[in-house]
Amino acid sequence: MERARMLMKLVNLLCLVVLCNAIESPQYAVVHSESDFEVRLYRDSTWMSAPVRQLSFEKATLLGFHRLFQYIQGANLNYSRIAMTAPVVTSLVPGAGPLHSFAYFVNLYLPVKFQADPPTPLPELHLKPFEWDSHCVAVRKFFGFAKDEIVVREAEKLAISLSRSPWANSTSDDSGYAYSIAQYSSPFQFIGRVNEVWVDIEASGIDGCKPSTKNIATS
After folding, report:
1. What phi and psi, each to the nearest 5 degrees, are found at residue 72?
2. Residue 102 and residue 12 in contact, taking contact as beta carbons nearer than 8 Å
3. For residues 135 and 90, what is the distance between their CA atoms, to the nearest angstrom?
4. At 206, is the secondary structure helix, strand, or coil?
5. Which is the most buried residue in 69, 114, 117, 209, by most CB within 10 A?
6. What is the pLDDT of residues 133-157, one digit of tens each?
7. Would you give the distance in Å from CA 19 to the centre of its chain?
8. DSSP conformational letter for 192
9. What is the superkingdom listed in this entry's lineage (predicted)?
10. How far apart are alpha carbons 183 and 161 in whole angstroms?
11. What residues contact 142, with CB distance under 8 A and at least 6 apart?
């Protein structure tokens, strides 16, 4: 019952902003593509982040987005209204396994208008901006609703794909995240819902996200 109520709250919140119609998203270039994942080079960008301590990915996303939604609706020191962007990205802090970690960060990309000088959130929201430096990300797309058991399974699939690729042993520890889940679709969209698993990777020649030759297995 509690889970149903929380999901309904999330639906109501996201319906107001309609994620699938968001105008702005972080900029990237696809530098490598395979059948089940691709590697992207993301540009420098500024995000607003909500830390959440929860066992459940779904609950963490709901609670973090609720605070971010208040922020973009004017709960900041400038009383600025900020346009919704996509995707909403929930990052898992490494712990004793995905469903045993208590820490998540729910992140929202800031529109270009606010990239250089984001409005300061009200203190009670416990939000903070962070600078996302240009870096490489391995991305696996999946469909449907991003539920706890599904995101774990999809992250494992991406890990397996990377282990069989030139990016084996190239996941980055610099971000502090095990992986992130990016959600793009409106909650009213039941067919063709789009989500992604993101994993930061290290690369030699960052301009092209080329895998480091030292990580390529030899027979």
Report:
1. -75, -15
2. no
3. 18
4. coil
5. 209
6. 999 999 999 999 999 999 999 999 9
7. 14
8. S
9. Eukaryota
10. 21
11. 150, 154, 195, 196, 197
DSSP three-state, residue 136: strand
pLDDT tens digits, 100-119: 556 899 999 999 999 999 99
DSSP 71-133: HHTT-BTT------BS-EEEEEPPSSSTTT--EEEEEEEPPHHHHSSPPPBPGGG--EEEEE-
Other Cβ atoms less than 10 A from the Cβ of 51: the count is: 16
Residue type, 177: Y
Phi-psi category of 35—alpha, beta or left, where left has phi over 0 and alpha has psi -120 to 50?
alpha
Structure tokens at 197: 């698993």
- Do 138 and 215 meet the contact criterion of CB atoms below 8 Å apart? no
Cis before 118? omega within 30? no
pLDDT at 66 over 70: yes
Give me the pLDDT at residue 13, please: 54
Task: Classify the phi-psi angles of 126: left when phi > 0, otherwise alpha if psi is within -120 to 50, otherwise beta.
Answer: left
Q: Strand ranges (DSSP E) for 144-193?
A: 179-183
pLDDT one-digit tens code per residue, 173-201: 666 678 999 999 766 677 878 999 999 98
